[in-house]
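quick one: adenosine-5'-diphosphate bound model?
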Amino acid sequence: MLEVVQLTAGYGGIEALHGISFDVRPGEIVTLIGANGAGKSTTLRAISGLIRARSGEIRFKGRSIANLPPHEIVGLGLAHVPEGRMVFSNLTVMENLRMGAYLQRDKAAIASTLGQVFDIFPRLRERERQSAGTLSGGEQQMLAIGRALMGRPRFLMLDEPSLGIAPLLVKSIFEQIVRINRDQGLAILLVEQNANLALRVSQRGHVLETGRITLSAPAGSLLADPAVRKAYLGGH
Ligand SMILES: Nc1ncnc2c1ncn2[C@@H]1O[C@H](COP(=O)(O)OP(=O)(O)O)[C@@H](O)[C@H]1O
Ligand SMILES: [Mg+2]
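yep, here:
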């Protein structure tokens, strides 16, 4: 589904990714684990075209997407829910969701996708006329995911979906992430500080350390690995 080969990327004079390689297979949930500043968000930004890939290759469904403009990458079915959610605060929930369908032409399909999103996140239906800025952090995260789903993606990248969210809502959002993956067969690349939670819903994980992938393994092996436990899972 997604293949990243020897990718380097960065900001100005800083190289943040030093040639990383990893993949995500169809239907999988894969977690990218790493400390703060390791380059997780940079990886997602390079894949979705928000920053340039300086070298290396990014292939989505077999096609090279390195340095395509972001809207073309979205158009191919790759959606990115950025860190910090970035919903349009002054627009209503419904307006935000409609924005997510801006590349869709078929009105009946849009209505049906909207129904699916409301089914996954009933709170969004309850708050459809409310402006997004008045939602709680957890509700804004639901809205950001719902907006991404409105584009009918085949592959979803989520950057820190649990960040700053009440534990009860985190649990519910993760249940829905699993459901979306299971019911729609959507492949998901998950970036999480809460590695424990993320690995529990993932098939595989990749460990990113200061711009390098140091370990790729089934999620169960990572959860059982003493070094991974010590560094990323609170050491228990
Ligand atoms: N907009 C930016 N400008 C300059 N440096 C940045 C920017 N964003 C991130 N960085 C740097 O790139 C590295 C990787 O950051 P990031 O991808 O945000 O890490 P993570 O998401 O794993 O916490 C860090 O050293 C960070 O300071
Ligand atoms: Mg980040």
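The beta strands are 2-11, 14-24, 29-33, 55-60, 63-64, 78-81, 155-159, 187-191, 204-209, 212-218.
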